[in-house]
Amino acid sequence: MLKLSMQALVCAVSLSVAGMLHAAGNAPISIKFAHVVAEHTPKGQGALLFKKLAEERLPGRVRVEVYPNSSLFGDGKEMEALLLGDVQLLAPSLAKFEHYAKQIQIFDLPFIFDDIHAVDRFQQSPQGKSLLTSMESKGITGLAYWHNGMKQLSANKALHEPKDARGLKFRVQASAVLDEQFKALRAAPRKMSFAEVYQGLQTGVVNGTENTWSNYESQKVHEVQKFFTESNHGAIDYMVITNTKFWNGLPEDVRSELEAVMGEVTVEVNKQAEALNQASRQTIVDAKTSEIIELTPEQRAEWRKAMQPVWQKFEDQIGKDMIEAAQAANSAP
Ligand code: LMR
Q1: Measured in angstroms, how far is the CA atom of residue 153 from the centroid of ligand 1?
Q2: Percent of the chain whose pLDDT exceeds 70
Q3: Which ligand 1 atom is at minimum distance from the Cα of 238?
Q4: In this predicted structure, what is the pLDDT of residue 333?
Q5: Which of 95, 108, 195, 276 has the highest Cβ tally under 10 A?
Q6: Helices marked H in the chain — which ranges?
Q7: Highest taxon of the source (predicted)?
Q8: What is the per-residue pLDDT for 25?
Q9: How far, in Å, from the CA of 203 to the mean position of ligand 1?
Q10: 310 exposed, middle or buried (CB, 10 Å; 0-12, 13-18, 19+)?
Q11: 37: CA distance to ligand 1 center in Å?
C-alpha cells in the first residue's frame, strides 16, 4: 500500500514538473522594445518591422511589444531599465552612450562626417564595428546601427552665420560633446529629454535645437520654431542594444534567427531613412509655418570653423585613431 502510494506520488510529482516545463517551453519569450520617437520615423518603422519579422519567423516562440514615444521608458531611464531586465531592446541615439563608452562620442563631433554615407562607411569599418561590443563589460551588447539622418538647426530667429546663435538657449541631448558644440558658438546649451522638446520650445525655456527632419516633423517642431537652417552639421543615428545576459541566454536557434531578422531590418531602415527625412522636410515646407534657410558653401564653412575646436577637447576621450578612422570614411573606397 505504502509502496503503491509512494509510486503514485513520484508519478504525480514528475507529471506536474513535466507539465510546468512544458508550459514554460511553450510560453513565448517576451521582448519589449522601447524608444522615444514617433512610429512614422526611421526608428519607429524599424521597431515595427522587427516585431513583424521576428513574430513571423519564430511563431509562438517570441512576442515583441513595441513602445514608441517614451511610453514605457524615456531618456534617462531606459538604459537602467535595460540593465534591470525591464526592457530587452532599445535604440538610443548615439549621443546617449557617454556614460558607457566614451569612444562612441565620435558620432557627435560636429562636421566629422560629410554626409550619411560617410557615417555608414564608418559604422561598417573595423573601428565602427568595435564600438558595438565596447559596452559588453557593462552588460550592454550592440546589435546594429540604424540611421536616422543628418542634423539641422532650428531657432526662433534666422541663423545664417555662427554669430546669429550667440546667446540663444539650445536644447541638446545628454551629451558633453553637444554641450561644448553650442558653447563654441557662445550659445547656452540645455540638456533636455526628447519628450520635453516641443514644450521647451513652445514655452521659451529654450530658443532653438538641432535634430533631423523626421524628428522635427513628427514632434511638430515647425509649429513652434520660425526658422530651420539646413546645416547638416552632424548625424542622429542609433545603436540597437540589448542586455548582454538576456541575449546570450536565449536558445541558440532563437538568437540566431533574431540576429538574421535584425540584419534584414537594418538594411531596410538604412535604405528608407533618407526618404522618410525628405518626406518630413516636405511636410514642413508645405505647412508654411516656418522658413528653411539653405547655407552657401562659404556660410557652411563658417559654421564648421566655429564648431570644430570641439574635436580637440574630446580627442583624449575618443582616441586619435578613432577620429582618423571617422575622417577616412569621408572618402569612398
Ligand atoms: C533626441 O533626443 O533628439 C533623439 O535622440 C531622439 C531620437 O531617438 O531620435
Answers
A1: 14
A2: 92
A3: 8
A4: 79
A5: 108
A6: 2-26, 42-57, 78-84, 116-124, 126-132, 176-184, 197-203, 213-218, 244-248, 252-287, 297-307, 309-318, 320-328
A7: Bacteria
A8: 56
A9: 20
A10: buried
A11: 7
Q: Is the CB of 215 under 6 A from ligand 1?
A: yes
Residue whose cell numbers read 519579422: 53
CA of 272 to the centre of ligand 1 (A): 18
User: Which residue is associated with the grid cell 556614460?
Assistant: 99
Q: DSSP string of 22-43?
A: HHHHHSPEEEEEE-SS-TTSHH
pLDDT at 10 over 50: no
Atom 2 in ligand 1: residue holding the nearest Cα: 194
Q: Which three cell numbers stand for residue 92?
A: 538610443
**Arithmetic mean of pLDDT over the chain:** 93
**Cell numbers placing 126:** 573595423
| Nearest CA, atom 3, ligand 1 | 194
Beta-carbon contacts of 85 under 8 Å, excluding residues fewer than 6 positions away, are: 243, 246
Per-residue model confidence as pLDDT tens digits over 25-72 = 579 999 999 999 999 999 999 999 999 999 999 999 999 999 999 999
Nearest CA to ligand 1 atom 1: 194
Tell me how far apart the terminal alpha carbons of the chain are, to the nearest angstrom.
Answer: 83
Amino acid at 123: Q
CA distances in angstroms from 183 to 16, 20, 100, 174, 307, listed in the order given: 65, 60, 24, 14, 9
Rounded to an integer, the average pLDDT of 241-246 is 98
CB of 66 sitting under 6 A from ligand 1: no
- Placement of cell 562626417 in the chain: 113
The torsion of the CA quartet 71, 72, 74, 80, rounded to 10 degrees, works out to 180
Instruction: Please tell me the number of Cα atoms within 13 Å of 172 on its side-chain side.
Output: 23
Measured at the CA of 185, the angle between CA 183 and CA 188, to 5 degrees, comes to: 45
Q: pTM (2 decimals)?
A: 0.92
How does pLDDT run across 199-212, given as a tens digit for each residue? 999 999 999 999 99
